[in-house]
Design brief:
Layout lengths: L4 H22 L4 H18 L8 H28 L4 H33 L15 H4 L5 H7 L5 H6 L3 H21 L1 H27 L1 H18 L8 H27 L3 H18 L6 H12 L3 H10 L6 H18 L6 H14 L9 H12 L5 H35 L5 H4 L3 H9 L4 H7 L4 H8 L2
Helix pairs in contact: 1-2, 2-10, 2-12, 3-8, 3-9, 3-10, 3-14, 4-11, 4-14, 4-15, 4-16, 4-18, 8-9, 9-22, 11-12, 11-15, 11-18, 12-13, 12-18, 13-14, 13-18, 13-22, 14-18, 15-16, 15-17, 15-18, 16-17
Main location: membrane
InterPro entries: Na-dicarboxylate_symporter (IPR001991), Na:dicarbo_symporter_sf (IPR036458)
Subcellular location: Membrane
Amino acid sequence: MNIDWLSAAALAVVLVFFIIIFILQKKKVNFTAIILGSLVVGVIVGIIFSGHTSWVMPIGKIYVSTLNAIVSPLIVVSILSSITSLGSTAQLKGIGVRSIFWLLMTTLLAILLALGLGLTFGIGRNSYLSLDGIDAQTFKSKVVPFTQVLVGFFPRNVISDIAEENTIPMILFAVLIAVSYVLVANENREKVIIFKKFIEAVKEIIFKAVDFIISLTPYAVLALIATATGNGISRSGIIWSLLALLIVSFIAFALDTWVINAVLIKSFAKLSPVKFFRKILPAQVVGFSTQSSAGTLPISTGILLGKIGVDPKVANFTAPLGTTIGMPGCAGIWPVLIAIYGINGLGINYGIRDYILLAVISLFVSLGTAGVPGTATITTASVLTAMGLPLELIVLSIPISAIADTGRTATNITGALVASAIVGRQEGSLNDNIFNDIEAYEAEIDEGNGQSGEMNDTEPDNSVPVGAGCRL
């Protein structure tokens, strides 16, 4: 049996840093600082042990799997808890319509940005792409017709939907049950109060589990980044022709995340973009590391509740919805740039009408995504097929896809957080005292200040465990 001693050495180094992380957590060092430090160390380990991080990889995989396991019950319970707390079905209608609109709007803006950058820089031009010998059959099974996507939105078997992490069917089922609760409660609240108490109890238990999982985030960040960096560098010899695509992708991610979203936050949420981005940084870092929008959901929700001041009714509805509708990175920027790269590289003659169609198709595809690693492959396959472009382009992009997925996911998460903040403002339920870190606000809660009923809505049980787990 041959032992890869470099892989063993990489694991040993990582374990040493795990001990350091444990000590720092015991000393109550800032959680965000620990995560950022883990990210830097992960990059260094990946560079030093390039191509030899296979023993480190399972650590990150286990974390992501565990985090994903809690996501399905978290989504169902969060939506049930949120909607059953609504005063009327009219309020649900307002939140739902606004959430979908802003999630799609963030994606549409990302698509237009990608079109502009891709055409301006001419990515793929003069690259003379060759698709000979590349097998794209593997990706054909990933293409899902839009009609099938539409049918798949609706629940068939709630147990299998939860097991398979079919987010939209779970959301629709939870909405159906919750709305039914509201209708019955309007007539006779006492008859269904036990159901509400049960949901709140389950929610508290799940968020306690989430709190524990989140506390392990720095360890996972180190392992995941080390693996991604090590694998990326070991493949670097074959990605020179895609380097321009990768650079333009990250330019697009950065502009969408910090420029377009800054305008949206300032114009529609009426919040300071600088302060907003500082508060959501932990979610961006975890998304960058785990490459999972759904896996980052507990952290995103905690930030919305405890740092941005979004009402639980909005945060617990819009944030989960943002893991499957919209996703400007995976369903907006990336498929469009891959398409343009292929169009230019293969010398295909595309006109304005074709690019408009590309934008429309990408937006439709964004209606049925899933916030887990690999989403971009599915969305890109669907877009390329709909546009009549070869699926082999996906195979060509594999060497840089893992690197790009870090930026894609952070962009997805930022878009969902921005949409949640805007919806909260438009619903009139965004608490500026929480966002502005006004200390007197906590004193008001303690003293009641004659608003105990309102404060109960803005300081629910579910905001405390997640916020504490993030050390925000």
